[in-house]
Design goal:
The protein is an alpha/beta fold. The chain is built from 12 helices and 11 strands. The chain has 2 domains: about 180 residues, 3-Layer(aba) Sandwich (Rossmann fold), CATH 3.40.50; about 110 residues, Rossmann fold. Strands 3-2-1-4-5-10-11 form a 7-stranded mixed sheet, with helices on both faces. A 4-stranded parallel sheet has the order 7-8-6-9, with helices on both faces. Helix 1 packs parallel to helix 10 and helix 6 packs across helix 7.
Length: about 325
């Protein structure tokens, strides 16, 4: 029986556990022997590799995070540790690898594949949603729903106290979470790294809204903008004379019960990943665009920067 392994790398994302469950069940369905690599790329180096079972994935579909844990591995950047990782795979006779992770994971895979030619398939799994050539990454829908629930609750407080709330989302240099959350929660202001903003212009618009009866503001900002959330809150108090509070959602965005959509996508991503490896396709990243899946070469995905599509950029400009 062929042996296939799966690991999670980088930041955790809801949907990883449903993916692990499907991985085990579908592997056995195809007469493959599934293995878990615990603790991400560090576990690959440390030989923390164990055969998976139905028992291990029982009841995990509703849990956020990943039962096999994840990591970021500075050691994997060094050839000597990648050689150790390769030898560990050989020791277990693992000939196929599925990896859940973000852009850093895909770049690491690109190097590993070129050096050792291990057949693999990568599944985009990052709440930042910043993988080139894929409009969706596993975990994004759950993160957006978590943010939506937080903003809805905060709006109750903002309206009760006539305050401005500056709500900071994750995303590094990608403003996807902030923009989609602002659009779907009725935020008055949204600031993201991809679009230049003019606070004086925003001030003029806000003053007009106050004149017309607005008593509170919700501002959703991405962590990658040029000013801190605290500075934006001070701007509200100084320029608009409105008491302001900052809420950084932080790692609450990463966890939580995976949504139906993330569970379905985990199922489909893993099924396609195993199918392509089992048919002797050596290396690819599964991307999702325009309601269909497609395979991209790892070099195509890892060597280019993801950008928001123009339609979303135009929506972001409307907040200025």
């Amino acid at each position: 029986m062929k042996r296939i392994a799966i690991l999670c790398s980088g930041g955790e994302a809801s949907g990883m556990n449903p993916a692990l469950k499907r991985f085990v069940e579908y592997s056995y369905e195809l007469n493959l022997t599934p293995f878990f690599i615990y603790d991400g790329l560090n576990g690959l180096i440390d030989n923390n590799i164990k055969e998976a079972s139905f028992k291990l994935v029982s009841g995990i579909i509703s849990r956020g995070g990943t039962i096999i844990r994840t990591s970021r591995s500075p050691r994997f950047k060094e050839l000597e540790f990648r050689e150790i990782a390769f030898e560990n795979l050989k020791q277990h006779n693992i000939t196929m690898l599925v990896i859940l992770g973000g852009d850093g994971t895909i770049r690491a895979l690109d190097i590993f594949y070129k050096e050792f030619n291990i057949p693999f398939c990568a599944i985009p799994a990052t709440i930042d949603n910043d993988i080139f050539a894929s409009s969706y990454s596993l975990g994004v829908d759950t993160a957006l729903n978590s943010i939506k629930n937080s903003i809805d609750s905060i709006r109750d407080s903002a309206s009760s106290f006539n305050r401005a709330f500056v709500i900071e989302t994750m995303g590094r240099e990608c403003g996807y979470l902030a923009l989609i959350s602002a659009m779907t929660s009725g935020a008055e202001i949204c600031l993201i790294p991809e679009v230049e903003y003019d606070l004086e212009k925003i001030r003029t618009k806000a003053l007009q809204q106050i004149k017309n009866g607005r008593t509170y503001f919700i501002a959703v900002v991405s962590e990658g903008i040029k000013q801190s959330s605290e500075e934006i809150a001070l701007w509200f108090e100084k320029e608009l004379n409105i008491e302001a509070r900052v809420t950084k959602l932080g790692h609450t965005q990463r966890g939580g019960n995976p949504t139906v959509y993330d569970r379905v996508m985990a199922y489909k991503f893993v099924t396609l990943a195993i199918d392509t490896l089992n048919s002797n396709h050596s290396s690819s990243v599964i991307c999702f665009n325009d309601s269909h899946f497609e395979y991209k070469s790892i070099s195509e995905v890892s060597n280019q920067k993801n950008i928001l599509d123009q339609e979303l950029i135009e929506e972001a400009k409307k907040f200025n």
